[in-house]
Write a structure and sequence with these properties.
The chain has about 210 residues and is an alpha/beta fold. It has one domain (about 10-214). The chain has helices at about 10-30, 65-70, 85-95, 110-120, 145-150, 200-214, and strands spanning about 35-40, 50-55, 75-80, 100-105, 125-130, 155-165, 165-170, 175-180, 185-190. The strands form two sheets. Strands 1-9-6-2-5-3-4 form a seven-stranded mixed beta sheet, with helices on both faces. It has a two-stranded antiparallel sheet with strand order 7-8. Helix 1 (about 10-30) crosses helix 3.
């Protein structure tokens, strides 16, 4: 069952329209950005094998731009997006860039979203998860991403996007929006293999450290 915001159809339609407008603006800004990739472990050279990318929630704005630049159309991609109203906007944005959505979170629809992500990985699709989303705390990874790695057998790949010029919104995560002509740096960390009997807390600590320093 697909989870959706508990809102009227009119409100949902408006959110989707807003998402498409945001995507159009993001594309225009994306044409002006100065991209910089640091991938010392050759993550993108290993395509098309499916990966689980871990990215902080407030760095999502540039992720579809990098996806189109480095991955599409060689590889399908799916993102974990909450079933909230804000998630409806984000899902619409990602959809414009060809990124599928698994809707759910720890508070609502998490089990169904996990199954959808696992199925996507089995079918060869990459997956991106924001370990501190959708409600935080900021830069604190939740154990759900570790369970996804355990069940799928795929490693976690820490990713970090840095912007030279940006606006930080007044949201819980201080969401970052790139300004035109900014430098947009993507740094890929070393993949973290997760054994089925690995200690969740230890993997979470390693992931947080890697996402901070990669």
């Amino acid at each position: 069952m697909a989870h959706r915001p508990k809102e009227t159809e009119e409100r949902i339609a408006r959110r989707r329209r807003d998402g498409r407008i945001i995507a159009a603006v993001l594309k225009v800004i994306g044409w002006t950005l100065r991209y910089e990739l640091r991938d010392p472990h050759g993550v993108f050279d290993s395509l098309p094998h499916p990966h689980i990318y871990a990215l902080w929630h407030n760095r999502l704005a540039c992720s579809p731009l990098w996806y189109r630049r480095l991955v599409a159309p060689r590889q399908r991609h799916m993102g974990l997006i909450s079933a909230s109203g804000d998630g409806e906007v984000l899902a619409a944005v990602m959809g414009v860039f060809g990124i599928d959505a698994a809707r759910g979170s720890s508070s609502r629809g998490g089990t169904e979203a996990m199954k959808k992500l696992l199925r996507a990985l089995e079918e060869g699709s990459d997956v991106t998860v924001t370990p501190d989303g959708p409600r935080g705390p900021l830069y604190r990874a939740q154990p759900g991403v570790v369970q996804l790695a355990k069940l799928s057998g795929r490693p976690l790949i820490p990713a970090r996007i840095e912007l030279g010029w940006k606006v930080e919104l007044r949201t819980w995560d201080r969401f970052q929006v790139p300004l035109p002509f900014s430098r947009c740096s993507l740094r890929m960390g070393e993949p973290i293999a997760v054994a089925s009997d690995a200690d969740d807390a230890d993997i979470v600590r390693r992931l947080e450290a890697a996402m901070t320093g990669c």
